[in-house]
Amino acid sequence: MHFFVSRAARISRKPFIWLRALFVLLVLLQNTGLQQTLAQTPVASSVQRSSLQGTNPPTTLADLERLALEGNPTLAQAEAAIRAAEGRRVQAGLMPNPIIGYAGEELAFRAIGEKSEHLGFIEQTFPLGGKLSKSRAIVALEKNQTEQDAAAQKQRILNAVRVLFYQALGAQELVEVRTQLAKLARDAVKTTSELFNVGQADRPDAAQIRIEAERAELDLIMAENERDQVWQELGAVIGNPFLKPTRLMGELDKGLPVLNQEELLTNLLSNSPELKRAKVGVERAKASLTRAKAEVAPDLFVRGGLGYNRELLEKEIPNARRTGPEASVEVGLRIPLWNRNQGGIATANAEMDMAEREVRRVELLLRARFASSYRTYLNALRVATQYEKQIVPQAQSAYDLYRTNFRAMAAAYPQVLIAQRTLFQVRVEYVQALVNTWQNAVLLRGYLLNGALDAPGGMTMEGGNPANADDRE
Questions:
Q1: Are 8 and 19 in contact (CB under 8 A)?
Q2: 253: CB partners within 8 A, 6+ apart
Q3: Given this model, what pLDDT does residue 71 score?
Q4: What's the chain's Rg over C-alpha atoms?
């Protein structure tokens, strides 16, 4: 920064030195506060010193997971779907209801009581060929698929909560950083304005410091908006749209996950609920084919009844006795002469072929998604590691050097401001890299499942899903 003695004022050399020393002292005090702030940024603190109000203890990831499993409506939907499938399984194994009725014959209008026959009967159909047990087996496998849908939905909810937790933790840290930077910028503007009024600061330097302060205020506003948006998404996933931002407990830069590619892929192909559901689909298709073949077996029809016949046994004999009580029995089978369920069997064969191809499709899709997610994870981890070991220390060193030169009157204060902004920007990018690393690790460990507000069973909601990472992109 250029210092000068005004010709009009003719300021003496001694007051000029004292004012200049005062300016340096004030700036050094600000820089000391900045250095302490950088050392205490949330990335390096175990319990975050957030600017959020409230004296409640910090919220943990486990707290949010518990709230999500209790309040997210899709998990209750998945559990209801399991109960519905169990109901269908019970229903599929029930016998057809019998028919009870009355039959009357030879009801002559001129003498209705002379020749009439009255019969009460019961009729029952008995499915043959194991149709009931085979139908029950199909629905039991459908229930198994529904259980896999529920397991997948639970994992989606947990993944979404974890992804949003790390995003909210990063947003909380960025608000902390931006708040401190904005405060330092405001103090710098106030000090520079006072020095400018007494002729100890140049107009361009004062303007640049004001610009820096305005940029810091805008950055703070955007960081707060980003934090609020993440908490709104988190509230939607948890099932509480009125959830307010609170302090979060966590350390982004501690214990970064180091994942093994082969182990993750093996676990994904062995335990993925999506792949398990597809494999159960093959078993269900086989059961449907077996049931279609059993349709050829005819059902047994049985009908029996008891009644009274008023017809005379010997019409020529006076006072002849009536026929009296009598019984009837009917037994029948539907002969599969033309309809042998040929179309149903062909359909079941095609559906089984589709189910087998579905397993292969899901496996290939998981492999492709895994490759993309793992590459993104490796990139984020590399960026975070590089920032931690190289970029952040270099930015800190450059800032310290400019601060030392300014103390020795060998550098202008705007140069310190530039180094300060660079350091803060580097720390922002470092936080973002840490968040990306944790989020991709969550998805890789959680079978690549996302979409906590999608309906269970693969149905997709119209519009964007805030809990889906793809929709946020």
A1: no
A2: 43, 44, 384, 388, 434
A3: 94
A4: 40
Tell me, what's the pLDDT at 316?
61
Residues contacting 128, CB < 8 A, separation 6+: 297, 298, 299, 300
In this prediction, residue 64 carries a pLDDT of 96
> Distances in Å between the alpha carbon of 93 and those of 124, 135, 140, 251, 340?
16, 7, 11, 55, 22
Residue with tokens 């029948």: 332
Evaluate whether 176 touches 52 at the Cβ level (below 8 Å): no
Query: Structure tokens of 397?
Result: 């060193």
For residue 297, give the DSSP letter.
Answer: S
The answer for residues whose C-beta is within 8 angstroms of residue 16's C-beta and 6 or more apart is: 3, 5, 200
Residue in 343, 364, 361 with CA at minimum distance from that of residue 353: 361
Cα–Cα dist 395/410, whole Å: 19
The SS3 assignment for 18 reads helix
Instruction: Please give the Cα distance from 19 to 25 (Å, whole number).
Output: 10
| Cα 275 to Cα 365: distance, rounded to the nearest angstrom | 10
The domain ranges of the chain are 13-71+133-295+362-472
Distances (CA, A) of 305 to 117, 118, 271, 332: 12, 10, 58, 15
How much is the pTM? 0.79
Output the six-digit token pair for 15.
Answer: 């007051």
**Separation CA 163–CA 175 (nearest Å):** 18
CA distances from 423 to 37, 251, 394, 419, 430 (A): 12, 20, 9, 6, 10
Between β-strands 99-105 and 117-126, what pairing exists: parallel, antiparallel or unpaired? antiparallel
Does residue 469 surpass a pLDDT of 50? no
Between CA 360 and CA 362 the distance in angstroms is 6
Give the Å distances, CA to CA, from 213 to 218, 220, 419, 466. 9, 11, 14, 33
Helix (H) or strand (E) holding 224: helix 203-238
β-bridge mates for residue 99, sequence order: 123
CATH of 13-71+133-295+362-472, one of 1.20.120.530, 3.10.450.50, 1.25.40.10, 1.20.1600.10: 1.20.1600.10
- pLDDT band with cut points at 50, 70 and 90 for residue 285: very high
Q: pLDDT, tens digit, for every residue of 13-31?
A: 344 443 444 444 444 445 5
The SS3 assignment for 311 reads: strand
Q: Are 71 and 64 in contact (CB under 8 A)?
A: no
Rounded CA-CA distance 398/416 in Å is: 9
- Given a cut of 50, whether residue 460 has pLDDT beyond it is no
* pLDDT higher at 461 or 108: 108
Could you tell me which of 27, 385, 329, 378 has the C-alpha nearest to residue 190?
A: 27
CB 337 within 8 A of CB 240: no
Asked whether 178 and 220 are in contact (CB, 8 A), the reply is: yes
CA 37 to chain centre: 35
